[in-house]
UniProtKB/TrEMBL annotation:
Source species, domain of life: Bacteria
Claim: Membrane is one of the keywords in the record: yes
Compartmental location: Endomembrane system
Residue ranges crossing the lipid bilayer per the database entry: 30-50, 59-77, 89-109, 116-133, 145-164, 176-194, 206-227, 234-256, 262-284
The name this protein goes by in its record: DMT family transporter
């Protein structure tokens, strides 16, 4: 069951780009951000009520609000960039998040970053640069072609802030009610600018677009819960490998559903930052120590005398 939850979370994250672009045929990014949180809170709340018979919301902790702001920033910029660019573009969020978390570990928590961490960060940054560049001439990149990369970078920073809040909140709250509290505050935050910023329905209302909005909510509400439950029982090496495969699935779905152009730069950059993610996350088995021959036992007193 734990492996199934891990697979569901990974596949859910990989479909985000395709679902956002599908929903974008009907409405704009502001409404999509609101629906991702709204339906996420709805489905997660129903699940927790069926499981525990109650839900426990807490709004008095500062990290609830910090995490909510981070996740709201994550979704706002991610949805905006996905509507502007290709449906696989959000693969950049994860490596940016990883680098920001490494820096935060050193600055905020005074944790020493190992050589392995710096190597992983270098691979992640290099991969993001290659994917963001995508072979575009530098003059076009300077004129605005790199805007989506900037938006995904901001989305990755927001995602990292959310992860930091989870780290702090899990000391006092369970995973399900923590996410429910954070996502409910995020729903309010992204709803505030909708009346002014959003254009409402911008395209034909279709069953596919409506289903995409609902599925995005399911992924928001349940995928983080599924992942947290899975890592309690699944070996961490498998979690790291399967979890990072979501970026490869995202590229596959982008090509199959939208025929988005997958260039050699996208493939190469993705492989570079996936290597960085694996270097950081996959544990290295300790080498077995070589057994040294035991020193000879000292001779007994009578044996010394006989000699």
């Amino acid at each position: 069951m734990s492996y199934l939850l891990l697979l569901l979370a990974t596949l859910g994250w990989s479909f985000v780009g395709v679902l956002v672009q599908t929903a974008g045929t009907m409405t704009d990014s502001a409404v999509i951000s609101f629906c991702r949180f709204f339906f996420g809170v709805l489905f997660l709340g129903i699940y927790l009520f069926l499981r525990d018979g109650k839900v426990q919301l807490r709004f008095g902790l500062k990290w609830i609000w910090i995490g909510a702001m981070g996740k709201a920033i994550n979704y706002i910029f991610e949805n905006l960039a996905l509507n502007m660019g290709y449906s696989y573009g959000n693969i950049l969020v994860q490596p940016v998040q990883t680098v920001v978390l490494l820096i935060a570990a050193g600055l905020l928590f005074k944790e020493k970053i190992s050589r392995r961490g710096w190597v992983a960060a270098a691979f992640c940054v290099a991969g993001v640069i290659v994917v963001g560049w995508n072979g575009t001439p530098l003059d076009e990149l300077a004129k605005g072609s790199g805007l989506t990369t900037l938006l995904f970078t901001l989305a990755g920073i927001g995602a990292a802030v959310h992860v930091l809040s989870q780290r702090m909140l899990l000391k006092t709250m369970d995973n399900g009610n923590m996410n429910l509290s954070v996502f409910l505050v995020s729903t309010v935050l992204v709803a505030l600018p909708v009346p002014v910023q959003s254009h409402g329905i911008t395209g034909p209302v279709t069953a596919w677009a409506c289903a995409a909005l609902v599925l995005l909510g399911v992924i928001t509400g349940l995928s983080f819960f599924w992942f947290a439950e899975a890592i309690k029982r699944v070996p961490f090496a498998i979690v790291a490998i399967v979890g990072n495969c979501s970026v490869l699935f995202s590229i596959l779905w982008a090509y199959l559903f939208f025929r988005d152009p997958i260039t050699v730069y996208v493939i190469g950059g993705t492989l570079i930052f996936v290597i960085g993610l694996l270097v950081l996350n996959v544990p290295i088995p300790l080498r077995k120590r070589k057994r040294l021959p035991r020193p000879p036992l000292p001779a007994a007193p009578n044996e010394k005398a006989a000699r």
